[in-house]
Amino acid sequence: LLGQILDQWFESEPLKATLATDAVIGAMASPHTPGSGYVLLHHVMGELEGRRGAWGYVAGGMGALSQAIACAAAARGAHIFTEKAVCHVLLGKDRRAQGVVLQDGTEVRSKLVLSNASPQITFLELTPQEELPKDFVQRIQQVDTRSPVTKINVAVDRLPSFLAAPNTRDGRPLPHHQCSIHLNCEGTHLLHHAFTEATHGHPSSRPMIELCIPSALDPGLAPQGCHVVSLFTQYTPSVLAGGQPWDEQARNTYADTVFDCIEAYAPGFKASVIGRDILTPSDLERIFGLPGGNIFHGGMSLDQLYFARPAPSYSGYRSPIPGLYLCGSGAHPGGGVMGAAGRNAAQVALKDFRQL
After folding, report:
1. Which terminus of the chain has a smaller tally of CB atoms within 10 A, N or C?
2. Nearest 5°: phi and psi at 114?
């Protein structure tokens, strides 16, 4: 249990609770859930520019990272097509993947197919079911994809000023504006209570909030004097109590709760808001193809990691369909902006390609 690990190393409850957020981030789990300690490890492993466990902002926003990858691929001769929805994976008479068929009927032929989509979309929607082993299909159907995440993007006309560290008169970003700010994390019991509310189908009355202000480091993201604020919040159930939908009223009611919480830490925040974009679990699934809204394509619990990700006997990026590979977060080692699954999958695919 994460709580036991933190108790061994730390005494301060606010510090323990703040660290605990990375043990439940993106997971429908509590700091008291068995296996939560691994999720914390997953988020602090690795390094950035030689600093172990460090995170960073992408200059120009996360889209700039995609563009950098695209440019590197194009420089190697790759052809990139966007806004071209895939209908299904094309199979030959030998059951090997031979490319994909687009929704407009266009066939794109290839000796190998690598899917960065979730295992659910790749194998339950894009692959002919009769060509897959029944036990494999059942395993993919049973993957826990519950998500507690509602993402809120906010535009503000001034920098938030927190009671604990008020802004200076010139309004310039201070050190705490340039890192992750964790709110409603004074104790791990608060996180557990928020989790419990969500398990009963109710959005948390005091949500866990991770607040980042990327424009404090990258001014080009917003007009002068204005800022963009990214709110990663938990816990919100995928399905509300009584089967109620996440309609506009439910979305705004929850967002108002989040903003009320921020207002208590930074008076004037609500008055500074110019606009907001609310993405509940159902929105994340609909817009980005994340199953259940899960940012990791599936829970990072111990029963869904390592040799069991996405399914036993298929953790090595190959699939039951020869020539079809899984290279996204649903493959080992799971989610996070690190590219490990893609790099590993590419090495396996290249090895197979040389043997064709």
Report:
1. C
2. -110, 125
- Residue 184 has a CB neighbour count (10 Å cut-off) of 22
- pLDDT (0 to 100) of residue 338: 86
Cα separation, 179 vs 57, whole angstroms? 9
DSSP code, position 279: E
| Pairing of β 324-326 and β 113-115 | parallel
For residue 158, the number of C-alpha atoms closer than 13 Å in the C-beta half-sphere is: 16
Given a contact cutoff of 8 angstroms between Cβ atoms, the answer to whether 139 and 303 are in contact is no
Q: How many whole angstroms separate alpha carbon 328 and alpha carbon 5?
A: 30
Q: Which residues contact 70 (CB under 8 A, 6 or more apart)?
A: 80
Of 329, 325, 323, the closest CA to residue 345 belongs to 325
The residues, any chain, with a CB within 8 Å of residue 101's CB and separated by 6 or more, are 86, 87, 88, 89, 90, 107, 108
> Is 126:89 a contact under the CB 8 Å cutoff?
yes
Amino acid at 16: K
Q: How far apart are CA 219 and CA 70, in angstroms?
A: 24
User: At residue 75, what is the residue type?
Assistant: A
pLDDT in tens, 126-176: 999 999 999 999 999 999 999 999 999 999 999 999 999 999 988 899 999
- List domains and CATH numbers for the chain: 2-56+146-288 (no CATH), 62-144+294-354 (3.50.50.60)
Confirm if 86 and 103 have CB atoms less than 8 A apart. Answer: yes
pLDDT < 50 stretches in the chain: none
Cα distances (angstroms) measured from residue 199 to each of 13, 221, 332: 24, 36, 27
Q: In what order do the strands lie in the sheet with 107-109?
A: 86-91, 97-102, 107-109
Strands in 92-225 per DSSP E: 97-102, 107-109, 113-115, 150-156, 181-183, 208-212
Spatial distance between the Cα atoms of 1 and 55, rounded to a whole number of angstroms: 24
What are the CA-CA distances from residue 263 to residues 168, 173, 260, 278 (Å)?
Answer: 18, 18, 5, 18
Read off the tokens for 290. Answer: 């994340």
Q: Give the start-end residues of each E strand in 248-331.
A: 273-279, 324-326
